[in-house]
Structures are given as structure tokens and as C-alpha cells.
Amino acid sequence: MPNSPAPARRSVLKVLAAAPAVSALGGLATATTASAASAPAPARATAGAAVPLAAPGIVKALPAEYFTVRGTNAEARFDSFGDTGHLTPVDRFFVRNHTTTPVLDAADWRLTLWGDGLHGRSPVHFTYGQLRDLPSVTRTALIECAGNGRSLYASQQGEPVTGTAWTLGAVGAARWRGVRLADVLRRAGIARDAVDLQPRGLDDPYVSGGIDYGRVRRPLPVAKAFDDVILAYEMNGEPLPYDHGHPVRLVVPSWVGIASIKWLGDIEVSTRPLSSPWSTDWYRLFGDAHPAGGSAPISRQTLKSGYQLPFGATLEAGRVHRLTGRAWSAHAPVRTVEVSTDGGAHWRRAHLHDTPRRDGWVRWSTPWLPRATGPVTLLSRTTDTAGNTQPERAVHNTQGYLFNAIVRHPVTVA
Ligand SMILES: Nc1nc2c(c(=O)[nH]1)N[C@H]1C(S)=C(S)[C@@H](COP(=O)(O)O)O[C@H]1N2
Ligand SMILES: [Mo]
Question: Ligand 1, residues 260, 264, 282: which to mutate, most atoms within 8 A of Cβ?
């Protein structure tokens, strides 16, 4: 990489394990969570107590009723999404961090574009102010980790997988505002024969098992970049929060979450295909059902549905319950959601409460009057307008990506 630029300037302020409340953006942490966060938090909160959990390097508060901490990551509790609307509020949105959230200042941030895929001058810089002066676009899109649902390979299919043991909460929907990546690439002078980009984050290099993999980066084909990718600086009407990529992140609609690089610092523009460990070692499908050496790098997410109910919940017999959930597909708008309250013997349609759109999800509900007591498996199955439907089993891959099977949700009627 002969002309790799120096990293963009970054704040020397690093997030400590117990970060103080951040006031610059407003609303990130309340006085209560701030004082609680300054004392060492227990690994797990006791039931009922709203003690914030600690995840090393995450700035925002992680109350136990909304999050499960998994290593450096915070999974949103899908079972608690019932009281959220179509959009996932920032204080309920999952965080996937390879290292720690860097606290960056928009005032000294700049984006660098470089590489042989730019004609003329390279590198090209954009300050935060210059980005804000470009025409803006606003759109709703899900961010979903490629490994969302991963733990179900083991719990439901008896198949071992590596990686963060997410249940269904590594997903959220937000309203993003920013500029089209296409506009920035044109202004930077992208060459006609550029094929690949490689956006890279300003967070610390990712070190695992003694190997330094460098900063988080992953190739993005120019065709996708020109289609619908956004450089986002707002999330749900607020400046992008620290944990979600402040001041600017990519939003790559309908693709696996790793494509949506947070704390964006630079983008290589290349006339040759690019690669990184995030396109060679990870985010490919490995295993018996896949080519030796792995599949092509994964890109589009899959489809899922789930009940907004804890696993193992107890429901009272002899009264009508309103069961609720969400369904989504990265391929096409959701067409139907079917539910079964008898382990799959009978299916009926759930009511949909949102207009299905690509890159969004639909809330659904179904009434249920359980009569007999005992254990029951609830199922839900979504089908999209392109004809994709959730299968009984997901095709195994060793890293547990793209789980799409019907989730078997155990409850007890008492
Ligand atoms: N710079 C950087 N970008 C990143 C990551 C990261 O660790 N560093 N994690 C990626 C992954 S794996 C996912 S799933 C999404 C999660 O976005 P969120 O934390 O805003 O929910 O960010 C992606 N972008
Ligand atoms: Mo992810």
C-alpha cells in the first residue's frame, strides 16, 4: 500500500471501562446512569434491579432489562422490543464492537479517500462541515449482525459454531440521515474503472489470539456503493451516538452489519479487487455444505421472525394473550407471517401492523387462548414477496452466520 495515508486525526480521549456521562451529544446518559457507571458494575444485575451492566468500551448505559452484555458487545433484548415502535431507540440499539468505542470529535474529524481508483489528486479529504453541506438523504434501514441468531445453531440444531452467542437481538431499525456515498465518490473523482472500495474505521486495531488484524475494514463493491449506501451522521434525528459510529458511519442497507463501518476514517478506492481478514477469514461460509476454502464473502442478510417474549416465559391458561413479534427480510418486503402455537401442527396468519418495505421490519400480533397447561413451542415463519420463506433448519456454517430457520420458542402454560 504505497500511498496509504496517515490515519485521520483522532481524539486522545479514550473510553474507559466505566465512562463518565457524556454531555456533548445530550441524552446519551442521565445523571443516574452516570453515577452508577462510575462505580464498578456487577457482571450481572440481580432480577428486577435496574443496575447498568458493564461492557468494556461501550459509552452508553446498558440497563439489564434492555441489554445482555456479550464480551465487548451488547445484545438488545428482543423480548423487550414489544414496547418500542417501528424504529429502535438509540438507548435500546445493540452495539457490536470489535474493540472499544473511540470518542471522536466531529470538529477535528475528516474523511480521506485515496487509491488508484481516483483520477487526479489523491488523497482527497472531506471535513465534517463539508459533508454536512452536501445534499442530505434520510432513510430507514435495519442494521443486523451477520451472526444474529447464531446461538440457535447450537440450541436448536445441535451444531457447534464459533463467535458471539447472539440470540435474536443483534438487530435494530433506525432512521439514518447523511449523504450518499455516490455523491462523495463523484466529488472525489472516482475513476471509471474503479471496482472496489475499502472503508476503514478509526477504532483501535483488532487483536485476537496474538494476531493484529489491523483496523476494521472490509471491501465494498463500487456497484453497491453507488446503489444505496449512506455516510450517516444522524440516527433517529440525533447526531450519531458515540457507540454507533460518531461522527460518521456507513449504512449499507440490507447487507450484513459488518459492511456498515462505524467511525469511518478513510476509504481506499481501487481498480483491483480488495480484501481484508473481514472478507477472507470471516464473513464467508465455511463447513461441509460450502465450497472448500469457503463461499464468496457474504453480503445480503437473510430473513427472520421472532416473538417479543422471553424464552421460557410462563403464560396463564384459560385467557386470551396477545402475542407480538417482528419479521424482516433483506431480500424483499415481508408478505406474510404465519404462527403456530402447537409446535408446528397447525399454522395461521398473524396480523401485520406495518406496511412491509424492503430494509424495514413489520410488527405482527396474534391472539392466543391456551387451554391445556404444560410446555408449548411457539413458532413463527415469515415469507417475503420474492418467495423466500424461513426453512425448518438453517444450513450450517462453522461461524454461525445468516441463521434463517424458524425459531422454536419454548413457553409454559400454567
Ligand atoms: N469501525 C467499526 N465498524 C464496525 C464494527 C466495528 O467493530 N468497528 N462492527 C461491525 C459489526 S460486526 C456490526 S454488526 C455493526 C454493528 O453496528 P452497531 O454497533 O451500531 O449496532 O457495526 C459494524 N461496523
Ligand atoms: Mo456484526
Answer: 260
Strand 351-352 relative to strand 348-349, pairing: unpaired
Best residue for ligand 1 mutational test, from 206, 258, 298, 301 (most atoms within 8 Å of Cβ): 258
pLDDT of 5 strictly over 60:
no
Rounded Cα gap, residues 229 and 179, in angstroms: 9
Q: What angle do CA 305, 310, 315 make, to 5 degrees?
A: 105
Ligand nearest to the CA of 150: 2
Task: Determine contact, residues 380/324, Cβ cutoff 8 Å.
Answer: no
pLDDT recorded at residue 314: 98
Place of cell 459454531: 161
Spell 201-238 as b/e; 16+ CB within 10 A means b: bbbbebeeeeeebebbbbbbebebbeebbbbbbbbbee
Which pTM does this prediction carry? 0.89
Looking at ligand 1, which atom is closest to the CA of residue 146?
Answer: 14
Ligand 1 binding pocket (C-beta < 6 A) is 93-98, 143, 145, 201, 203, 216, 244, 257-258, 260-263
**Can you tell me which atom of ligand 1 is nearest the CA of 263?**
1
Please report the pLDDT score of residue 26 as a whole number: 31
- Report the candidate in 327, 331, 397 with the shortest Cα–Cα distance to residue 364: 327
The atom of ligand 1 lying closest to the CA of 145 is: 14
- Phi and psi of 157, rounded to 5°? -115, -5
Q: Is the CB of residue 360 less than 8 Å from the CB of residue 394?
A: no
Question: How far is Cα 131 from Cα 95, in angstroms, rounded to an integer?
Answer: 25
